[in-house]
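To whoever is on call:

I kicked off a structure prediction for a single chain this morning and the downstream step that reads the tokens threw a length-mismatch warning. I double-checked the sequence; it's 337 residues and nothing unusual in it as far as I can see. Pasting both halves so you can look.
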Amino acid sequence: GYDVGNIHNALTVPTPFWNSGFFLMGVATLALYVFAYLYHRFRDSDKEAPHAMLLSLVLASIATAVTFTVELDNGFDNYTTLPWLFEGLLVLYIGLRSGSKTTQVVGWIVAAIGLCAMGNAVGDIHGDHGLLVADAPAFWNLGMLLMLLSVVATYAFAYLYRSYKDTLPDWKKYAAALVIIANVLTISCVTWEIGYSYDLQTRALYRAATAEAAASNNYYGGAYPNPYEINRRPEAQQTVDYSKIRSIGSSKETAITLFWAFYSILLLVIGFAKRMRGIRLLGLGLFFITAMRVFLIVWQLGALSRIISSIAFGIIALAGSFLYAKYKHRLKEIIYD
């Protein structure tokens, strides 16, 4: 690790995956896999040294993720999510196959690290890059791809538990929790992209005001502003059209509210059709959160936003009540069970 740090901190930036640091980390990772093989190869019985072998496999998997993360950090830092998600799946597979709950927990932890890296990467991609760097388009950017891959990885976790249902009596609890997490990630994914699409419009207004102020030499000393502070400069804020900013903000809150409302009904439909209590409760919870959002946030916006949100939410509420009335016999079965 010390040698790799010196190599990657040198004045000459090494080529990713083509440097002595990657070779050294690869050798160390391979050594851990060899450790696991040796413990498995020279055991006297099936019960001998399983913990040592599993520990070696887990450490080798984590070392693999760290190796690729370190290399991707050099010019491809937004992709560091992927190694942790893939290694989390691998460690979980090892834990399920061996029946080791400790290894399964490690798989969850590795995947959680990947999700945290995903959130950080999406924040960087959706961040305000100022006047010098173009923004990524909404719904068609690396952040959206990373979030979708995280959703797919979560469903893959649920599929692994389902695949080993014969050896896991409580597999449904784990699978249900993972499906709920996948839906929460889906909601977050689309919500972030909806908000980002409207944020792009707001940034365009600020940038236009900044460019106009710069052209008329309204900045102190005639200096061009730091592109990372375009939303903080008082000169730009004096020339921006705040009525348009408020209109964009109202449209953003309305769009997010409508998406949450429609998605809550979709979750209720799936929950009733597939008899999935967790999904049904998630949809009901999201529905009540959306109701609170309508009256606490959207209601403070413009009249048009209030009208659209209220009508749409009322229609969706009627649809939800219709679902509960239509499937009341299933509710009785669930209560009696």
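Update from on-call: the warning came from a stale cache, not from the record. Cleared it. Sanity check on the structure: The chain has a mean pLDDT of 77.
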